[in-house]
Amino acid sequence: MAATTHVLGMDLANPVVVGSGLLTDQERNIRRLLNSGAGAVITKTIHPNPPTGLDERIIRLPTGMINSTTYSKRSVDRWMGILRDLARDRLPVIASLHADSPTELAELAAQVEAAGCRALELGISCLNETDGLDDTPERVHAYTAAARAATRVPFSVKLASGEGLHARAFAAARAGADAVTISDTLPAVAVHPESGDLRLGGVFGYSGPGIKPLVLASLWKLCRAGFPLPLLGSGGVQSGRDVQDYLRVGAVAAQVYTALHTDMSPTLARIVAEATELRTTDHGSEPATGADRSGQVRS
To answer: 170-187: string of b/e by CB count within 10 Å (b at 16+)?
Structure first.
C-alpha cells in the first residue's frame, strides 16, 4: 500500500488486523499470520483466571459462526514468554487482555508492558462466561481507567455494538483509552432441528458477515457524533472490499477473524491483496463520515 497505517502507536504495512480468537492462541500461528500479510495480529485474550470446565465449541452457520469459547487457557507466565519473543523480533502484535476485576486487569497490563508488548486491546466485553454480560458505561470506565493508570502502552477498548454503545464508547474515551474497537461478538442462538433445544445450551457470541452492516452503522454514527478517538472496525470481513468499507465509514483499520477459519493463510493473503489494490485504486477518495485516516473527525 502507498502509505503505512498508524494504529496504537505502531506503523503497520496495511490496515488488515487479525482479531483475537482461537487462531491467535499460539505463537506459531501469530507468526504465520504476520508472514501471510497481516498488518498486525491480536492475541487470544489473556486472562489470569480463565473459566474452567466450560463446554467450549464452535457452530458454523451459512453466515458466520457462534462460539462458546472464552479466554486463552495458557498461563500468564507462558504468555509473557511468548510476548517477549515476539517483542524481541519487533513484530506488530497486540495483546488482548481481560481479568475478573479492574485491579487484576491493571496488574496484568503492567506485566504485559514489562514483557515489551507495544499495544493492547482490552477484551472486556466477552459475553461467553457463565453469567453472560450486561455491560455498562460505569463498568467500561472502571476497567479502562485501571489499565490507563497501570501502563503507558497504547490500548484500544473492544466493545460490542448495540444498545448504549455511545455511552460505553465515550466512557472509554474519558477514562483514557487510545482507541475503541467495534464490535465484539453479538448475542445469538442456534436451534437444534430435531430436539428444538438451543445448540451450545444458551446464548453465545455470533461473528461473521451478518454483523457487518450493524458495525458499519455503529462506526458511522460514532463518527457523526464527534467521537474523539480512532476506531477499529471488526465484524464480517471476508474481502478487501469489506476492509475498504470499514475505512470509508471512519475506521483506521479493520479486524478479520471468522473468515480465517477456512484456509487461514491463503484467505488472509487474498484479503490483504484485495484491500491493497482497492486502496490504491481509491487513493484520494474521502471517507463517507468526514473522518480523516488518523481517526479524528474534522469540523
So the answer is: bbbbebebbbbbbbbbbb
Instruction: Give the three-state DSSP class for 54.
Output: coil
Tell me the H-state helices in 151-208: 165-174
pTM of the model: 0.90
Q: Listing from the earlier edge strand, what are the strands of the sheet with 186-188?
A: 58-61, 64-67, 204-207, 186-188
**Three cell numbers, residue 270:** 487474498
Angle between helix axes 102-114 and 76-88 (nearest 10 degrees) is 40
69, 122, 170 from 143: Cα distances, Å: 22, 8, 14
C-alpha cell at 136: 455498562
pLDDT, tens digit, for every residue of 137-146? 999 999 999 9
Q: What is the DSSP letter of 157?
A: E
Which pLDDT tens digit goes with each residue over 187-226?
Answer: 899 899 899 999 888 888 899 999 999 999 999 999 999 9
Alpha helices in 133-231 (DSSP H): 137-150, 165-174, 212-224
Q: Are 219 and 233 in contact (CB under 8 A)?
A: yes
Mean pLDDT of the chain: 90
Separation of alpha carbons 105 and 98, rounded Å = 6
